[in-house]
Every structure is written in structure tokens, then in C-alpha cells.
Specification:
Among the domains are: about 5-130 and about 135-215, 2-Layer Sandwich (Beta Polymerase, domain 2), CATH 3.30.460; about 220-365, Four Helix Bundle (Hemerythrin (Met), subunit A) (Up-down Bundle); about 670-735, no CATH class; about 735-930, no CATH class. It has 43 helices and 16 strands. It has an 8-stranded antiparallel sheet with strand order 9-10-12-11-15-16-14-13. Strands 3-2-1-4 form a 4-stranded mixed sheet, sandwiched between helices. A 4-stranded mixed sheet has the order 5-6-7-8. The longest helix has 30 residues, at about 45-75. The protein is globular.
Length: about 950
């Protein structure tokens, strides 16, 4: 069954008619009701105003409820916004008439007692979301009068008393003009002015003077200001339009971008309605219909967002995405949830908004309303000929450093040109003229089986993908034009596809393109935080460079299918690679990398890398040193492209450790000798950083740590730990805590130094849970003198560091009290809510895996499930109650999904081999997720 919302958007959106606006309130009945209230009222003006506000508030609440019902019925967002605006107009009209008649009557108004009430800003556009503010401008002939001031105040106070947020100004026409010249925000507000009530000639005079004295000859200034404002807004909201929790109003591709387009068009082309842009040649009919569809869809989402949350919420967060999807009529398909289909449609609309922006900007540049850079203007004067041929082609030319079709039929004559244009743009560092992008988009039907099988087209595509000249940007333009999804149909299936989880920050296609960008950065040696991959990429065999780019481009291409995307992706790779001319051996390497692209990340973050069996098992999967290099590079790029702060020093250290532990096994080297050399190198590096310590003290401290510590912990943390341990010992403390911050990961770090014992991790986790802190990962080490040095990473709660530090200090204090036995953790933790906030939006099927194959000494217990505050405490307490010793723990969180791995033995130090006992462990741990057990239940 197709989505009703998608079916709806196949129809052109019409402007709402008077019938569409409906009667959210019965104005005649409401006015009669207010007249009756006024006649019966015996109190003063303030009391009458209070009664008036209460009655109007009730009408507004009922009207918005009716608007919500109509929106659910007809699914027309723009109609809903127009209905609410029309209702607001009626409320203000009734209020104005009531005020003039009953509060401040003027029998013989003078020339000075004229007033025009004008809607400005968003309200001036005639569209309001349920929670939108309203902006009013009271225009007077030349100066304020006592009557005008009283009427304006009465209207405003009454509107405020109804609960509305009202922006307002009272100005003469001269003041409007003067302030518009000085302030771009005021200028934009008046640009959208709409007459509501009062003296119409005043409004007309203001508009005429505004056009003549403010707008005329200032188009370039206004356009520059609005585009700069747009860039700053995007920076604040997140530059990518493919963020998985987008801001519907201010995000890239959101409503404000459409508003900015129309402000610019209205100012430059002096139009009053969007459809007039067709007459001016800015849009063609299809593009204008696209503008309408985008606006209607975004208004639908925004209105539903306000109705669902009961407030002016603009961020489409995870916890409300599913409800909005269901309201809009989206349904589940195999491999894709209803919410994922809705968000895919959202991102496609955001892309369309970006396309419309490019069209308008191109028209502005051609008409010189948008300023070109100073250097470009100087060059244009020095070199009058603006167009020139591009070497190697007669089909394309360059104009102002942008590629353009030389003739109208270049794509029909030779469809390979649909790939060649991107190859030429990349080769000659050319941007794309919007007319060329338009022509490409209109020629997409030419991309069929013949072009996909064309040897030259595939060779050009491979060169684009593997170029050292910014392949990410060119591939993104191919994607935006629709070429990439047509030329590689499997990629087309993941275009604008979001993954409904808190781990991935971007849509699947955006993630894949960012991966290519990260890889190209490593290729140039520019990735300062990926030194190992920067080094390895120049040590792989030359033919494997293309293998790496192709594998990274394909690694998530099978997302959204019912089966495992790694296996399905490998199958796609085996079909696709021969198209690109890759040999059978290279094709198999690409397929292997795609199928195993998650293995290294999983092993590094959730296995004991100091356990020889872990390394042997991983080496058995990888098999060759060349594959190890390729997988290391791919894994690094994949993690780094997930989102800001996901790649960090800790993960880099784990990947580096796993690589250097595995390489000798695959090359036939002596692993223990190699390991000892790397431990010695790490210790030497530490000695260099700690030259202020006395040699004997430094060597004594180094001897406290086992080899695994020196290999797994990065240098900054080693230095922090050393100074922390030194200060603790100098103070003769047996227990101490330290607070730190990792701004790249947006986490707070708590380090605990205490005597080691089996319940230590559980107590630390319980104290964090009691304080409502969520543990996202943990690094646990034991020293040679029986002390534990544990670093716990917590989700931040406050943006300001001083606020977060106070919170973290309270949590650290709770940990110390719990370790001293001053708190009863089971009772306190049970009082906390098991799950709250955005986490409720997700469902993760809990799973417990127990095996003895990843360690010679320990049984590995891997627990996967929905993360929540207190989960680690419940898991560790349960394991302890089951009479299991926890040798090491590896705690990782991927958004809402917790993956916690425990290496355990029984009380005698033996592995758990009994099937009956393994089944009992599974039942107890699964029960925690099902809510059937309490922390510590046996």
C-alpha cells in the first residue's frame, strides 16, 4: 500500500479558497456573545477586558482544535496555516471593533486619530502555525495620540491575556521608512506587511513610500544581507540538510529557506505573489508547482509538530517523528518503518528546496542583483569575453567558472555526457551553472540500461569516485541532480533514507558521500586525527586504492532491506564492480570489505584486545595483512563520517591497538616481541611527557600498569591519570575521583581510583544511575598493586561547562559515598525512572550471547538492548548475584543501543560451560529489558 502522503504530493497544490479557510470560529455568534457580555458588565475597564480575553481565548482553543481535525482529514498544511491565520484576523477584527465601541469610542475622530493595523513578518504572509507568534504594526499618520495609544494597548493586553505571543510596534509612516532603511529585520517585516483593519489609505501610503524610498535601487544590499543571514542560520541549525533530527523552520531546506527565496524575489522582482515569478521567468510552471508542494508539505509537518507537542516546537526530534509520520498517512514497507519512509520524503523535499534556491540565485547573478565577488568583477572588466571553451569537449563551455551546456541537445545526442559533465567539472575545477543542472534533471530519463553498461561512462564514474580532486563534492552534485541514483540504482534506493536511531547523524546517502570525503582527506594526508590510516593508505597496493573507494561507496548501500545489509551489500558489490572494470580478484576484495565492514569496529570496542584469543579470532576473519590495512582505513572513515564527535582519541587508540596486535599474526612475526616493543614505545613517549617527575617516581608509576594499559589508553589520558594518582597518593587517600570533559564527544568523564573488588564496577554504575547519569562507555583497568583505575563517560546534561562540572562533582561525591557504604544503592536506584526522554521513541530487541570462543580463560557475555540510565548497574549487579566474577567489561553505546560485553568466570575462576547455567544467565539478563527483574535479582 502506497503512502497517502506520497500520493497526495503527486497533485498540484492550489491556493486555499474562502471555502478551504472554513470557519474555525463563528464570528457573528462570537460578536453577539461579546455584545451581551458588555451589556451585562457592571465593573470597570480592566474587568471587562479580562472577561473579553477569557471568551476570546476559549474561541481560539476551540478554533485550533477544529483546525487540527481538518488537517488530519485533508492533510493540507498550507490550508491549515491559512485557516489559523484567518481565524486570528477575525479575532483581531472583533477585538478592534469591540475596543472602539465599548472601551475607547471616538465620535468625531480627528485627522490624527486615524490608525491602520497591519500584520507583518510571518503573520503578514497570511500563514500561521498553531504555536506561531503574531507581529502587529500600528501605523499612525505622523505622531502618537492618546486615543491611538489606548486602542493599541487595549488590543495588545487582551491578546497577551489570551496567551498569545505578540510582537508589536507603533510607528508613524516616517518612522517606518527611517527604521526600514537602518534595520534589515524591520525592512523584511514591512516587506511582508498585510493590511488588517483601520485606515486603508495609511497602509497604501506606507507601502508606496516603502517601495520608492527603501526598496528602489537597494536589491543587491538586501539580497546579500538575506543570504548572509541564511548562512548563519544554517550554521546554527546544522549545515547539512540531511541531519536526522532537522529543524523544520530554520534548518537547511526548511520553511525559512522558502521564505527567504520569496523575500528576495519579492524585493528584487517587485512581485506580491509567488506565482508571479513564472511571469518574470524565474521559475517555469513545473518549478512553481514544486515550490507549492514543498511549502505545503513543510507546513503540514510544522502544524502537526505544534499540535502534537502543544508548543511552538520546530525540531523534528526522534520522539515525535513516528507520530507525525502516522498522522501524515505513512505506512511500513519491508525493511523500512513508517517513520523512515516519512523522513525520506522530508529529506527529498529539503533537497528540492535547495534546488529552488540555486535557481533563484542563478537568476539573481544573471541580473546582477546578487553581488559577485570583487575579484570576479575586476576580472570581468579586464576580460570582456565571459564564456570560453573547455579543452577536450565541444559540448560544454565555461562561464564565470561554471560549466554550461554549449547546445540544448548535448544529452540527447550523447547520454554519456550526463556523466562526462561531472568528470569535466571535477577535472577543471568548475562549479555547475543552475541551467546545466536544470538540463541534467530534465534528461534523467536517458539514464537506462544502455548508459549503465557503457564502458566509457563507467570508466568516467570510477575516475570521479577515485579522484584526488574533491570527489565528495562532485558526487554530491551528481546526487542532487538525480544522476547518481539513476546510474547506480542501488544507491538510488538509499537516497534521503534515514535510519531511525540516535547513532547516525545523517541519511544513508549523505553518510556514504561523507565517507568518500573522509577517505579523500586521508589520501591527501590531511586527516590530523587519523594518523594510522593516513600512513596505511600509502602502503596498500596501488590497485587497491580504487578497491577501497568503491568498497566505501558501497558499504551501506543495502540499508533499508529486510536482510542483513552487509550480506546484501556484498551481493550488490559482486554485480556492480565488473561494470566499473574491476577484476574478479578486486571484485571479491570489495565484496569482502562490504560484508565485513562492521567487524573491526565491533571487535575493537567490545572485545578484550589483551586476550590472545581475541586477536587470533579476528586474524582468522581478516586472513591477510593487505585486507587488514584496507579494513582499518575503511573502518576509520566509516566511524568518522557517522557524525561530529563520534570519532575520538579513544576509538582511534582501540583501532590502532587492534591493528598492531593483529598485524604480526598475519605476517608471521613474533607477536609478543612486537607487543613488547610497542609497550616500550608507549612508555618512552610517556616518559618524554613527564620529564618534571623524578626518574625513580616515574619508573615506579610505570610499573603499576599492565601492558594492556599502555597500548589502549591515549597519551593525554595517561598524563591525566598519572597526575591524578600522584595527588591521591600524596594526600594519603585510598579512594578518589576526578572530573574531566571530552568536548569532541560531548561527554563528561569521571575517573575513579579505588581498591579493586568484584562489585566495584556495579557500585560505580549504581551511583551514576542514582544520580540520573547515563553511562555511554567505560574504560576499566587494574594496577599491579590491586587498585582499580576506571574512567566512566557520561552523557552531558548542561551546555555550560560550569553547570556540568557542578553536576559531575555531585555524581562523583555519590560514587565515593557508595564505595564507602554510605548509600543503599538498590533502594535509591529503583526510585529512578527506568527509561525516559527520547529513548522511548526506539525499540531494540534485547539479545544475550554467551560463548567461550573469544577467550581461553573467560566466558564472554555480550548484552545488546535499549540503553537507559541504570542499565549497566542492573547488568553488573545481576552478574554478581549469579556468582560470576567480572574479569573485564567493555561498555559501548551506539545512540540508543547499548552493547555491553563482560568477560566472566565462576567463583573458582573457570569458564561457564554448562548449558543449563548459560541459559539461566540469559534469562536473568533478558528479564532486565523486559522489566521482569530488578537489579541484582538472581
Amino acid at each position: 500500500m502506497a503512502s497517502l502522503a506520497l500520493e497526495r504530493d503527486a497533485r498540484p497544490t492550489l491556493e486555499p479558497t474562502a471555502k478551504d479557510l472554513g470557519d474555525l470560529i463563528d464570528s457573528t455568534a462570537l460578536m453577539a456573545d461579546l455584545e451581551a457580555l458588555a451589556a451585562a458588565h457592571t465593573g470597570g475597564e480592566r474587568e471587562l477586558r479580562t472577561v473579553l480575553a477569557q471568551r476570546l481565548k476559549a474561541a481560539l482553543v476551540a478554533g485550533k482544535a477544529k483546525a487540527e481535525q481538518l488537517l488530519l482529514k485533508d492533510r493540507r498544511g498550507r490550508h491549515c496555516a491559512a485557516r489559523i491565520c484567518h481565524m486570528q484576523d477575525e479575532i483581531i477584527r472583533i477585538l478592534f471593533e469591540f475596543t472602539r465601541k465599548h472601551l475607547y469610542p471616538s465620535q468625531n475622530p480627528s485627522e490624527a486619530e486615524r490608525m491602520a493595523i497591519i500584520a507583518t513578518g510571518g503573520y503578514g504572509r497570511g500563514l500561521l502555525a498553531p504555536g506561531s507568534d503574531i507581529d502587529l504594526l500600528f501605523v499612525l499618520p505622523y505622531k502618537q495620540t492618546a486615543w491611538g495609544e489606548s486602542v493599541a494597548e487595549a488590543i495588545l493586553y487582551c491578546l497577551w491575556d489570551t496567551g498569545l505571543k505578540v510582537g508589536h510596534a507603533t510607528r508613524s509612516i516616517d518612522e517606518c521608512i527611517r527604521q526600514s532603511k537602518a534595520d534589515m529585520t524591520i525592512r523584511t517585516a514591512i516587506l511582508e506587511a498585510r493590511f488588517l483593519l483601520g485606515d486603508r489609505p495609511l497602509f497604501d501610503e506606507m507601502v508606496t513610500r516603502f517601495d520608492n524610498e527603501v526598496v528602489r535601487n537597494t536589491a543587491a544590499e538586501f539580497v546579500a544581507a538575506k543570504l548572509a543571514e541564511r548562512e548563519e542560520r544554517h550554521r546554527r541549525a546544522g549545515q547539512s540538510r540531511y541531519l536526522v533530527e532537522p529543524n523544520v523552520k530554520d534548518g537547511k531546506g526548511g520553511l525559512r529557506d522558502l521564505h527567504t527565496l520569496f523575500w528576495i524575489a519579492k524585493y528584487v522582482y517587485r512581485v506580491h505573489e509567488p506565482e508571479e515569478l513564472i511571469e518574470r521567468g524565474v521559475f517555469d510552471k513545473q518549478e512553481y508547482q514544486l515550490f507549492q508542494r514543498c511549502e505545503d508539505f513543510l507546513w503540514s509537518v510544522r502544524c502537526h509538530l505544534h499540535f502534537v507537542t502543544g508548543r511552538p516546537e520546530e525540531r523534528l526530534s526522534f520522539d515525535i517523528q513516528r507520530e507525525i509520520a502516522q498522522r501524515l498517512g505513512y505506512t511500513e514497507h519491508p525493511g523500512q518503518q513508517d517513520v523512515e519512509r516519512f523522513m525520506k520524503h522530508y529529506f527529498l523535499i529539503a533537497k528540492d528546496v535547495g534546488d529552488l534556491t540555486a535557481i533563484v540565485c542563478a537568476e539573481l547573478e544573471d541580473s546582477h542583483a546578487k553581488s559577485t565577488p570583487v575579484l570576479s568583477r575586476m576580472m570581468a572588466r579586464l576580460r570582456p569575453v565571459r564564456r570560453h571553451e573547455i579543452s577536450g569537449t565541444k559540448d560544454f563551455i565555461a562561464e564565470h567558472n561554471r560549466i554550461l551546456c554549449a547546445k540544448a541537445n548535448v544529452f540527447e545526442r550523447d547520454p554519456v555526457n550526463l556523466i562526462r559533465i561531472f568528470h569535466l567539472a571535477q577535472k577543471h575545477n568548475l562549479a555547475f551553472h543552475p541551467d546545466a543542472m536544470r538540463a541534467i534533471t530534465r534528461s534523467l530519463k536517458l539514464i537506462g540500461a544502455d548508459l549503465r553498461d557503457n564502458e566509457e561512462a563507467n570508466q568516467l564514474f570510477l575516475e570521479i569516485l577515485t579522484s584526488k580532486n574533491d570527489p565528495e563534492t562532485v558526487l554530491r552534485r551528481m546526487n542532487e541532480a538525480g544522476v547518481l541514483g539513476r546510474f547506480v540504482p542501488a544507491f538510488g534506493k538509499v537516497v534521503a533514507m534515514m535510519q531511525f536511531n540516535m547513532y547516525h547523524h545523517y541519511t544513508v546517502d549523505e553518510h556514504l558521500l561523507r565517507c568518500i570525503g573522509v577517505l579523500a582527506e586521508m589520501d591527501r594526508g590531511a586527516g590530523t586525527d587519523t594518523p594510522l590510516s593516513n600512513e596505511l593508505i600509502h602502503k596498500i597496493r596501488p590497485e587497491n586504492r580504487a578497491v577501497l573507494y568503491v568498497a566505501l561507496f558501497l558499504h551501506d548501500i543495502a540499508k533499508g532491506r529486510p536482510e542483513d545489509h552487509s550480506i546484501a551489500g556484498a551481493r550488490i558489490a559482486r554485480r556492480f564492480c565488473p561494470r566499473l572494470g574491476l577484476s574478479a580478484a578486486d571484485t571479491e576484495t570489495v565484496a569482502w570489505l562490504v560484508e565485513n565492514h562492521l567487524v573491526m569496529s565491533s571487535v575493537a570496542q567490545s572485545r578484550d584486545l589483551s586476550d590472545r584469543k581475541t586477536i587470533e579470532n579476528f586474524a582468522a576473519v581478516v586472513q591477510t595483512a593487505e585486507r587488514l590495512k584496507l579494513l582499518t582505513i575503511l573502518t576509520t572513515a566509516d566511524i568518522k563520517a557517522v557524525g561530529p564527535g563520534v570519532w575520538n582519541g579513544w576509538k582511534a587508540q582501540l583501532i590502532r591497538t587492534l591493528y598492531y596486535e593483529t598485524e604480526p599474526v598475519l605476517t608471521g612475526g613474533f607477536s609478543e616481541v612486537n607487543r613488547a616493543q610497542r609497550v616500550e614505545m608507549a612508555q618512552t613517549e610517556f616518559r618524554e611527557a613527564m620529564k618534571d617527575w623524578r626518574p625513580e617516581r616515574l619508573e615506579a608509576y610505570i610499573a603499576k600498569h599492565y601492558p594492556a594499559y599502555w597500548l589502549k589508553v591515549d597519551l593525554p589520558h595517561k598524563i591525566e591519570h598519572a597526575r591524578f594518582v600522584q595527588s591521591t597518593e600524596e594526600a594519603a587517600k585510598t579512594l578518589a575521583t576526578m572530573v574531566g570533559f571530552d568536548n569532541t564527544r560531548a561527554v563528561t568523564e569521571l575517573t575513579v581510583f579505588a581498591p579493586d573488588h568484584p562489585w566495584l564496577l556495579s557500585i560505580i554504575a549504581g551511583a551514576c544511575a542514582m544520580a540520573g547519569a547515563n553511562i555511554v562507555d567505560a574504560q576499566i583497568y587494574t594496577t599491579t598493586d590491586g587498585r582499580a583505575l576506571d574512567t566512566i563517560a557520561l552523557s552531558r546534561e548542561f551546555e555550560r561547562e560550569d553547570d556540568e562540572e557542578r553536576r559531575a562533582t555531585r555524581i562523583a561525591d555519590s560514587i565515593e559515598k557508595a564505595l564507602r557504604g554510605e548509600l543503599r544503592l538498590p533502594d535509591l536506584v529503583s526510585k529512578r525512572a527506568a527509561s525516559k526522554g527520547r529513548i522511548k521513541a526506539f525499540a531494540v530487541e534485547p539479545n544475550v550471547t554467551i560463548n567461550n570462543q573469544w577467550s581461553h580463560r573467560y566466558t564472554m557475555v555480550e548484552v545488546t538492548g535499549l540503553d537507559r540510565p541504570g542499565l549497566l548497574y542492573e547488568l553488573t549487579a545481576t552478574l554478581s548475584k549469579l556468582n560470576l566474577n567480572i574479569g573485564s567489561a567493555h561498555v559501548a553505546t551506539f545512540g540508543e543501543r547499548a552493547v555491553d560485553v563482560f568477560y566472566v568466570t565462576d567463583l573458582m575462576g573457570a569458564q561457564i560451560t554448562s548449558p543449563t547455567r548459560q541459559a539461566a544467565i540469559k534469562r536473568a539478563l533478558i528479564a532486565l529489558f523486559a522489566g521482569e527483574g530488578k537489579a541484582g535479582a538472581a
